[in-house]
Amino acid sequence: MSMILGRIESLVNNVLHTDQALLSDVAAMAGKVMAVELVGPDKSIYIMPHTDGIYLQHDFSGDVNVRIKGSPFALLKMARQKDEQPASFDGDVEISGDLALGQHLQRMIKRLDLDWEELLSHKVGDVAAHQIGNVVRAFSSWAKESHENMEQNISDYLRIEAKLTPNNTEIDQFMNDVDDLRSDVDRIEQKIARLSL
Fold first, then answer.
1. Cβ(38)–Cβ(73) under 8 Å?
2. Residue 103 CB: number of other CB atoms within 10 A?
3. What backbone torsions phi and psi does residue 93 show, to the nearest 5 degrees?
4. Rounded distance, CA 107 to CA 80, Å?
5. String of b and e for 22-46 (b: at least 16 CB within 10 Å)?
6. Looking at residue 56, what DSSP letter applies?
7. pLDDT single digits (tens) 25-73
8. Crossing angle of helices 99-112 and 72-80, rounded to 10°
9. Are 82 and 50 in contact (CB under 8 A)?
């Protein structure tokens, strides 16, 4: 575990030194301790930012500012999200402690743009790491497509079955009726203005 953390720490620090803005963000968190608890392998990684990068340890006995807990798959999925939402923890990943610090850490991990397959290949080999990467990509694609299908199905149900929302034709007709009514009111106002002269 120590050898893997050493490789990850070295890789992250190399990336940080190529992005001074990101390194400044890390330096702003100096003195904080963040625990990432891996569910399944039951391992913890402690992230300790400092002015020149980060330290990673697998054991720490002091106070922790924030704990992020989830399966390696859920944490990897969170790190790979491309949306700009700040820390959309959704039940697969739990956070406790300083929420703002946890969100800051999530945004920074997204900005790091590490090659996770390369990191994983040191542990499981190139072929297995590539296959795991394919599974993560396929799952992400499936989840996105399922979410879009669910939104469409709910919209169709509310519009067609439950008749709770109008369809586009009904909305267009309503807007035309509003325009006609506005024109009628304008004409009546003009007639009233002429009659009052």
1. no
2. 17
3. -125, 130
4. 10
5. bbebbeebeebbbbbbbbeeeebbb
6. E
7. 889 899 999 999 888 888 889 999 999 999 999 899 999 999 988 887 7
8. 70
9. no
